[in-house]
Design goal:
It is built from two helices and ten strands; from the N terminus they run βββββββββαβα. With 186 residues, the protein is of the alpha+beta class.
């Protein structure tokens, strides 16, 4: 799939992009797109009581530093379903660094987007406009989600919509330059 840009505000900053949902809000199962079969696959099951706070997916036609498509958490009124394509606008990113149990340290920033069809989040265009309690809960989810895998995550700060769109654009360029890869089928 190509990275689909639906609308722009004329400034070069993308306002709406297509996202493919892998794991819906409220789900303990973590699904992942399997490029070989072209289907969703169960990746892992989270511990009892831990669920995804919002839909989680990826921007098709992108490649992050780890070689996978760029991840995104989508704020929406209701959960969707695995494989669902949805138009979203990135509103920012949680900037984070993680250390795995082997001691490897990597950047693991998380893009946050709003579904274009959302009523509840229709007025949110920047991460700073999100209710601070909601943002804190999302940060805590990412920290605790990795903690159960013995990976430490440290939130370094936040980026606003323009920077988040730049992250997506860089991941799209990386995908185009890499040629056929695992994000090519995504």
């Amino acid at each position: 799939m190509k990275t689909a840009v639906r609308k722009s505000d004329g400034s070069g900053a993308c306002m709406t992009r297509q996202v493919v949902i892998e794991t819906p809000r409220g789900c303990r199962n973590k699904y992942k797109f399997d490029e070989e079969s072209g289907r969703m696959k169960l990746s892992k099951v989270m511990p009892e009581g831990m669920v995804f706070p919002y839909d989680f997916g990826f921007f098709p036609g992108t490649q992050s530093d780890d070689g996978d498509p760029l991840d995104v958490l989508v704020l929406n009124d209701e959960p969707t379903f695995p494989g669902f394509q949805i138009d979203c606008r990135p509103i920012g990113a949680i900037l984070a660094r993680q250390h795995d149990k082997g001691g490897e340290e990597v950047e693991n920033d998380r893009i946050i987007a709003v579904a274009e069809a959302s009523f509840l989040y229709a007025g949110v265009h920047e991460l700073a406009e999100l209710e601070p309690k909601v943002l804190k809960q999302v940060e805590d989810f990412f920290v605790n989600y990795q903690k159960v895998r013995e990976v430490q995550v440290f939130v370094k700060g936040h980026a606003e919509a323009k920077e988040a769109n730049r992250f997506v654009e860089h991941a799209s360029i990386r995908h185009r330059r890499s040629g056929p890869s695992k994000s090519a089928a995504a």
